[in-house]
């Protein structure tokens, strides 16, 4: 029997770019799993948690865990949301032993998409094909909280025709930081200007990443600068789901 | 919202627009950051040392009273007088009293952040003494009437041309054709002035990087040797240090010293590492006649039993600042605080109150690099989040931000309402975008769209689309 994977689609993918959710589902299925989309999911609670609103974050954490009951794994196309569920849920439940035990057990089932495909499913062939140069931006949560850097690159190496180039200073924050980019837009902008400059210097056709928030930030900056470089979630390229235009690009444009 | 003395956003904006500051800060990634990486790469046991250092600091903090008492006993045995000050005012007064008893008119200082914290210089100057900073960066900062913008590189915000201009402005004895273009010219000029001060000073004041309980010694590390001259030449030497500077043994100090410079400047060791224990003894070639150690609490003891205890592990290397994208963007002065960067974002609210410093723990993208490079593994993002929790409970965030968060949380906790509301919202946004891929201006995120486009949504939510598929229908 195939493992049952609960796709935690993340609130940004749900709202902004559902095609990433379908690409993720396709990849998980291609790795030999059944995909379920738990209906009760909304948001992992990170915006509340990082705003100091622990009470609402706890309610959302409990609701998310409840929604994902019965799944063998819970997979999110985001290092940030996965880290929230995997690392921070148990901390959030401190002081309530049974809830904390539940969060710890839940945490063991949670994976960021690329790390699930590589470390759990040992995927060696992906459906996507892409003729051109891409760069991969490491989002901070996935990189530093979950230690994800090799996994997306191993998957990209399986994409026929794809050439991976590395951007300079790839461990630096793009300045998204969730509500940080809204609360401190000028500082956030100083950060994304550096990331955008690194992207332009590497000159790929696409900048890929594992977190839609960072990608929206980088794509928004590149679009404002008039750059032709597109931004996509890495799942879109891995799954070969490229019918929609890159993030922040107009529908009529042709291109990667 | 309470009236804040520290307007972080305004000073951050000014810093971002300050071209010479930005030039100075641009040197950080290729400078201190690259140097640390190289130092770490040269030392295979670097990560193991971080674990050991964290354990030393945690053990010390759990037994801080014992180690402070042990230090006091050992320091007294070697002839120093130890003074405990629970507040900044007590510390200032204790130091002023020592200076008065020595009839001090000229006081030479080594670099000390805690002296900045307690406002020592202005206190001594108000009492009529001349106070001279002898670390080159601190000297420059003092000439300019500023505070340090970095805990180990106080003048990192000043480029060389500015430094030369400051010297010309303040050293009025300089011949107009005196060369000050190169760094060695500046050093020579400062040295000529400072030599006189070292020799003439009545009292020398230094900080301490560590106080060793086992030996009663204060340890100072410098690259200029100025600390040694300040400690040894004047008749009276005062060490001012905060309570958490104590370490149990010489061995422990050695472990921490192996990490301190590597983390901060990328040096294996600083040029000078000096152990100072007591006044000049019979047969010593030099040294002060009297030694005092002023140990300052200033709010730290209250942190020991709190969720913020880990911040007291800090050994003041500056690595968190060097690696912080926010610090790199705005520099230290924008924080309007003695301590800037991630460590300042956690420590400052504890020292001066969250009300005046609430922006500091909020202004972080939680990228986590500070924790990654901290030699004593302080979980800085976690501690900043803890301050946000205190802040949230006090409802000090602007009303609009609070209301937006509450409205969002209300919906997110009600999946049916949430999915309906989000379906309608993204559809409306898609229509408003009129086929374009992004918004050039966006009413709910004006700050965002001042600098970058806001991507338009694809128009349907994932949950709506998934429910229409075969897989979604069978779920």
Plain-language structure description:
Chain A has 256 residues and is α/β, with parallel strands linked by helices. Chain A folds into two domains: 4-119, Rossmann fold; 125-239, Rossmann fold. Helices cover 50% and strands 14% of the residues of chain A. Chain A is built from 13 helices and eight strands. In chain A, the strands form two sheets. In chain A, strands 2-1-3-4 form a four-stranded parallel sheet, with helices on both faces. In chain A, strands 6-5-7-8 form a four-stranded parallel sheet, sandwiched between helices. Chain B has 475 residues and is α/β, with parallel strands linked by helices. Among the domains of chain B are: 61-301, 3-Layer(aba) Sandwich (Rossmann fold), CATH 3.40.50; 404-474, no CATH class. Helix content of chain B is 53%, strand content 11%. Chain B has helices spanning 8-16, 19-25, 29-42, 46-62, 64-77, 88-101, 113-117, 120-126, 136-143, 160-170, 183-200, 226-232, 250-264, 301-304, 319-323, 325-330, 341-352, 354-357, 359-362, 369-373, 380-393, 399-412, 415-433, 446-451, 462-468, 470-474, and strands spanning 80-85, 106-109, 130-133, 203-206, 210-212, 217-222, 236-242, 246-247, 272-276, 290-296, 438-439, 454-455. In chain B, the strands form three sheets. Chain B has a six-stranded parallel sheet with strand order 1-10-7-4-2-3, with helices on both faces. Chain B is globular and about 90 Å long. Classes of the chains: A alpha/beta (256), B alpha/beta (475).
Describe the protein's topology:
The complex is a heterodimer of chains A (256) and B (475).
Chain A: E1 4-7, H1 11-16, H2 18-30, E2 34-36, H3 46-50, H4 54-67, E3 73-76, H5 79-92, H6 97-109, E4 110-112, H7 113-120, E5 129-137, H8 140-145, H9 150-156, E6 160-165, H10 180-183, H11 185-202, E7 206-209, H12 212-224, E8 230-233, H13 234-239
Parallel strand pairs in A: 1-2, 1-3, 3-4, 5-6, 5-7, 7-8
Helix pairs in contact in A: 5-6, 7-9, 11-12
Chain B: H1 8-16, H2 19-25, H3 29-42, H4 46-62, H5 64-77, E1 80-85, H6 88-101, E2 106-109, H7 113-117, H8 120-126, E3 130-133, H9 136-143, H10 160-170, H11 183-200, E4 203-206, E5 210-212, E6 217-222, H12 226-232, E7 236-242, E8 246-247, H13 250-264, E9 272-276, E10 290-296, H14 301-304, H15 319-323, H16 325-330, H17 341-352, H18 354-357, H19 359-362, H20 369-373, H21 380-393, H22 399-412, H23 415-433, E11 438-439, H24 446-451, E12 454-455, H25 462-468, H26 470-474
Parallel strand pairs in B: 1-10, 2-3, 2-4, 4-7, 5-8, 7-10
Antiparallel strand pairs in B: 5-6, 6-9, 11-12
Helix pairs in contact in B: 4-13, 17-21
């Amino acid at each position: 029997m195939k493992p049952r994977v609960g796709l935690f689609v993340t609130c940004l993918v749900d709202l902004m770019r559902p095609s990433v959710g379908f690409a993720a589902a396709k990849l998980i299925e291609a790795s030999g799993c059944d995909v379920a989309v738990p209906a009760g999911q909304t948001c992992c609670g990170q915006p509340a948690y990082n705003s100091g609103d622990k009470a609402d974050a706890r309610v959302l954490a409990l609701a998310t865990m409840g929604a994902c009951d019965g799944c063998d794994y819970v997979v999110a196309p985001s290092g940030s949301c996965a880290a929230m569920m995997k690392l921070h849920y148990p901390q959030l439940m401190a002081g309530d032993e049974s809830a904390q035990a539940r969060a710890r057990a839940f945490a063991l089932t949670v994976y960021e998409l690329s790390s699930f495909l590589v470390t759990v499913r040992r995927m060696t062939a992906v459906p996507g094909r892409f003729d051109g140069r891409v760069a991969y931006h490491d989002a901070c949560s996935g990189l530093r909280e979950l230690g994800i850097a090799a996994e997306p690159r191993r998957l990209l190496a399986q994409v026929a025709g794809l050439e991976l180039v590395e951007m300079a200073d790839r461990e630096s924050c793009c300045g998204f930081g969730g509500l940080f980019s809204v609360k401190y837009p000028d500082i956030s902008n100083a950060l994304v200007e550096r990331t955008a400059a690194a992207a332009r210097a590497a000159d790929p056709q696409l900048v890929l990443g594992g977190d839609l928030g960072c990608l929206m930030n980088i794509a928004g900056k590149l679009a404002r600068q008039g750059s032709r470089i597109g931004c996509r979630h890495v799942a879109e390229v891995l799954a070969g789901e490229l019918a929609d235009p890159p993030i922040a690009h107009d529908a009529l444009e042709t291109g990667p | 919202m309470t009236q804040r003395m520290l307007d972080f956003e305004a000073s951050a904006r000014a810093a971002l627009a300050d071209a010479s500051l930005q030039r100075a800060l641009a040197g950080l990634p290729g400078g201190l950051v690259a140097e640390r990486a190289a130092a770490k790469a040269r030392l295979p046991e670097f990560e193991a040392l971080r674990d050991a250092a964290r354990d030393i600091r945690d053990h010390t903090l759990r037994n801080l009273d014992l180690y402070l008492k042990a230090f006091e006993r050992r320091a007294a045995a070697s002839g120093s007088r130890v003074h405990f000050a629970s507040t900044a005012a007590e510390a200032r007064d204790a130091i002023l009293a020592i200076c008065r008893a020595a009839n001090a008119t000229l006081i030479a200082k080594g670099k000390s952040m805690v002296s900045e914290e307690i406002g020592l210089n202005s206190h001594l100057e108000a009492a009529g003494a001349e106070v001279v900073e002898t670390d080159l960066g601190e000297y420059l900062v003092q000439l300019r009437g500023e505070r340090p913008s970095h805990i180990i590189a106080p003048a990192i915000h000043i480029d060389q041309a500015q430094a030369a201009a400051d010297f010309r402005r303040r050293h009025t004895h300089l011949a107009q054709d005196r060369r000050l273009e190169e760094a060695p010219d500046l050093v020579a000029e400062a040295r000529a002035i400072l030599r006189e001060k070292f020799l003439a000073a009545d009292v020398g004041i230094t900080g301490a990087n560590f106080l060793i309980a086992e030996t009663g010694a204060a340890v100072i590390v410098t690259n200029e040797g100025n600390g040694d001259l300040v400690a040894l030449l004047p008749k009276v030497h005062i060490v001012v240090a905060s309570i958490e500077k104590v370490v149990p043994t010489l061995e422990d100090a050695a472990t921490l010293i192996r990490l301190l410079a590597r983390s901060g400047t990328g040096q294996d060791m600083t040029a000078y590492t000096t152990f100072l224990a007591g006044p000049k003894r019979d047969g010593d070639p030099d040294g002060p006649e009297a030694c005092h150690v002023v140990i300052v609490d200033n709010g730290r003891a209250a942190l020991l039993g709190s969720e913020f205890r880990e911040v007291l592990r800090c050994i003041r290397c500056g690595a968190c600042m060097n690696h912080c994208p926010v610090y790199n963007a705005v520099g230290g002065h924008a924080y309007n605080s003695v301590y800037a960067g991630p460590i300042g974002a956690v420590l400052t609210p504890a020292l001066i109150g969250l009300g005046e410093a609430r922006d500091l723990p909020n202004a972080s993208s939680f990228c986590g690099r500070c924790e990654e490079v901290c030699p004593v593994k302080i979980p800085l993002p976690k501690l900043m989040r803890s301050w946000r929790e205190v802040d949230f409970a006090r409802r000090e965030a602007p009303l609009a931000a609070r209301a937006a968060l509450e409205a969002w949380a209300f919906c997110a906790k009600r999946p049916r309402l949430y999915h309906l509301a989000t379906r309608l919202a993204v559809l409306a946004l898609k229509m408003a975008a009129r086929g374009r891929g992004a918004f050039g201006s966006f009413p709910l995120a004006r700050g965002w769209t001042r600098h970058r486009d806001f991507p338009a949504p694809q128009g349907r939510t994932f949950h709506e689309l998934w429910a229409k598929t075969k897989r979604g229908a069978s779920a």
